[in-house]
């Protein structure tokens, strides 16, 4: 086996920070699973089309414009892909791709967030202390 092949193999191995249930694992890309890849694609498409969609939606909702122009704007908005709609974006944990219980500020699930906060891995997070 060639030495270069062994060196290239190392970049596919991802060493996680002792996240519960996630040890050493082999990853072919930087996303947790195909659901996360789909969500990232939707976020990218939504960001790319944001200005144009906003402009067309403003024309659709404008009561001053004639009905013909608003109907043209309706047809134009339907030409966008469904993945370009911001409503199709799901909040997922960036580490585990868990869809529920997301702490929005960090985009992590509550389980991962709590684990990292317990070991002082998140800046600005402090345990509640009283009395």
From TrEMBL:
| UniProt keywords, alphabetically | Ribonucleoprotein, Ribosomal protein
Does the keyword DNA-binding belong to this entry? no
What Gene Ontology molecular function terms does this protein carry? structural constituent of ribosome
A GO BP term here is: translation
Q: Does the keyword Acyltransferase apply?
A: no
Q: What InterPro entries does the database record attribute to this sequence? A: Ribosomal_uS14 (IPR001209)
A GO-annotated cellular component: mitochondrial small ribosomal subunit
Q: Which family does it belong to?
A: Belongs to the universal ribosomal protein uS14 family.
Q: What is this protein's name?
A: 28S ribosomal protein S14, mitochondrial
């Amino acid at each position: 086996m060639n030495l270069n092949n062994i060196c290239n193999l190392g970049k596919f191995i991802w060493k996680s920070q002792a996240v519960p249930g996630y040890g050493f694992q082999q990853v072919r890309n930087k996303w947790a699973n195909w659901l996360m890849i789909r969500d990232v694609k939707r976020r990218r498409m939504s960001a790319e089309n944001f200005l144009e969609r906003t402009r067309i939606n403003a024309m659709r909702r404008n009561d001053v414009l004639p009905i013909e122009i608003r109907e043209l704007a309706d047809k134009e908005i339907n030409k966008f892909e469904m993945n370009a709609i911001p409503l199709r974006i799901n909040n997922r944990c960036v580490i585990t791709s868990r869809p529920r219980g997301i702490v929005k500020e960090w985009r992590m699930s509550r389980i991962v967030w709590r684990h990292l906060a317990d070991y002082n891995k998140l800046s600005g997070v402090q345990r509640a202390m009283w009395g």
